[in-house]
Write a structure and sequence with these properties.
With 512 residues, the chain is an alpha/beta fold. Helices cover 44% and strands 18% of the residues. The termini are far apart. The structure holds nicotinamide-adenine-dinucleotide (NAD). It holds the Pfam family Aldedh.
């Protein structure tokens, strides 16, 4: 299929949800490297969003009735479709988000792996099971199951336009929900492509995954459209607005927000490996990674060696939009302004850029900052650019203290050769996820939950927790036989309460 045909396909796919409802306003998505138009998409208004959610509600019933096996089969067809068209989708991600083709392939691979895990583990995690009824209800059978919520609204960012929303979409679908997805206004073509792929791969329940496109107002309309839950991934300020809109209808929310993740390098660490991981964690995807490494705290004895190893590696990196470039441009022009402000603040408050510190249009040079005070915006706020602050600390304990001194708490990394020490530091790191002797690895383990604490949000995608996040727990008891004395009846004899108190005394009274 030619490029022009592909673009027509994605644009038509987004319009597919709206041509049944008149919306005239449109917006363009552009290639951040060249400014070329990638596609033109409808701005879905509140009525169009509501209609889409209603169509999804009808599909949700059919989707839920398919059961775990029927859904697993169809989720497999979807991932098969994505895998067969991997390069086509990667090309679209490259053009619309700016990241290198190889990084787009990696991102899509992760999303496919999560789809496979969610489909394969939904029954075991959510299916009906019997639980012990306990002493007081010994004559009853007790059942637990996790039921779908109906329609889940997903609002996504632009930095990982496939992997990030799929963390909610795959798990919500596997749990038996239909999904209405509002991609970022910076990556609507990728969102529309994902929905068009669903329609093609799962034609019998095509409306179980639909896309609405537009700006923040479209997202706000989705919050108010009667969805069973709203899964939001984006910045903390927008997260607050989403929560406020959802509060109007008591719609529950999942918040996957930003971070200011740190790496701790202990004095016994493999310094070269730590440097290599820090550079990837900070610079890949132009630093536009929620779980990217933005700060490194290095034990004094290995600080100089670590800085030298990082510097050597960063010198070899070049931003660009060609296949050999290490990373692409900032996807969003305004993000370059944030990076510039953080660089200015870092250098004017005593820090120095040993490498980089410059911007060329949307391309930010890979930047290594030393001696930046902890009060600087470059240390306190999410930068979301290819920058890294490296700070010398007394030891790993001080590193942990500084790591945790942030309002964010998404993820982080620890480098140490001592397993016990590294695990202890990882446990005490105030974050939802930590990698030991690597960066970002937890995101590629589908069985592990993903989510933050504090300003990084709450709730979890991925793993069993991620499946349960998109369900409601349902409890059922069934009386198997009646007891001669029913304590929850006005017919109970007066002595029954005393007898119960005596039993409790025997069973629990001995514990002090
Ligand atoms: P953003 O908050 O600007 O936008 C996110 C989405 O919210 C977009 O689709 C946008 O259109 C929509 N939106 C904007 N205003 C809205 C409103 N009032 N109501 C409803 N929806 C609204 O974030 P972004 O710039 O697209 O993404 C970058 C941020 O996302 C960073 O902070 C990054 O750390 C975070 N992020 C977090 C995770 C995670 O899993 N924790 C993953 C990726 C990105």
């Amino acid at each position: 299929m030619s490029l022009a045909e592909q673009l027509d396909t994605v644009t038509d796919a987004a319009a597919g949800t709206v041509d049944r409802h008149a919306t005239t306003e449109t917006f363009e998505s552009t290639n951040p490297a060249s400014g070329a138009v990638v596609g033109v998409f409808p701005v879905h208004d509140a009525d169009a969003v509501r209609e889409t959610v209603e169509r999804a509600r009808a599909a949700a019933q059919r989707w839920a009735e398919l059961g775990f096996d029927g859904r697993r089969e169809r989720l497999a067809a979807y991932r098969g479709y994505l895998a067969r068209r991997m390069h086509e989708l990667a090309d679209l991600v490259h053009r619309e988000n700016g990241k290198p083709h190889a990084d787009a392939i990696l991102e899509i691979t992760l999303a496919i792996d999560h789809l496979a895990w969610a489909g394969a583990h939904a029954r075991k995690t959510l299916g009906p099971r019997r639980v012990r009824a306990g002493m007081l209800a010994a004559n009853h059978a007790a059942y637990l199951e996790y039921q779908p919520l109906g329609v889940v609204g997903v609002i996504g960012p632009w930095n990982y336009p496939v992997f990030t929303p799929m963390g909610s979409i795959a798990y919500a679908l596997a749990a038996g929900n239909a999904v209405v997805f509002k991609p970022s206004e910076h990556t609507p073509a990728v969102g529309a492509w994902l929905a068009a792929a669903w329609r093609a791969a799962v034609p019998d329940v095509a409306d179980a995954l639909q896309v609405v496109t537009g700006y923040g107002e479209t997202g706000a309309a989705l919050c108010r459209a009667g969805v069973g839950k709203l899964a939001f991934t984006g910045s903390a300020p927008t997260g607050r607005k989403v929560m406020a809109a959802c509060a109007e209808t008591l719609t529950p929310v999942l918040m996957e927000l930003g971070g200011k993740d740190a790496m701790i390098v202990d004095d016994d660490a493999d310094v070269a490996a730590a440097a290599d991981a820090a550079v990837w964690g900070a610079m890949s995807n132009a630093g536009q990674t929620c779980i990217g490494i933005e700060r490194v705290y290095v034990s004094s004895p290995v600080y100089d060696r670590f800085v030298a190893e990082v510097t050597e590696r960063v010198q070899g990196l070049r931003p660009g939009s060609d296949d050999e470039a290490a990373y692409g441009p900032m996807t969003m022009a305004s993000q370059a302004d944030v990076v510039r402000r953080h660089l200015d603040d870092a250098t004017s408050s005593g820090g120095r850029a040993v490498l980089g510190g410059t911007l060329d249009g949307g391309f930010v040079a890979p930047t290594v900052l030393l001696d930046v005070p902890e009060s600087s915006a470059a240390v306190r706020e999410e930068t979301f650019g290819p920058t890294l602050t490296i700070t010398r600390v007394r030891d790993a304990e001080e590193a942990l203290e500084r790591t945790n001194a942030t309002s964010y708490g998404l993820a982080g990394a620890v480098f140490s050769r001592s397993r016990a020490r590294a695990m202890d530091l990882a446990r005490r790191m105030r974050s939802g996820m930590t990698s030991v002797n690597s960066v970002l690895t937890f995101a590629s383990v589908p069985a592990l939950p993903f989510g933050g604490v504090g300003e990084s949000g709450f709730g979890r995608i991925h793993g069993e927790d991620g499946l349960k996040e998109f369900t409601r727990a349902k409890a059922i008891t069934r009386q198997r036989y009646a007891l001669p004395v029913n304590l929850m009846s006005f017919t109970r004899p007066p002595a029954a309460a005393d007898a119960l108190a005596r039993v409790m005394g025997v069973v629990h009274g001995r514990h002090r």
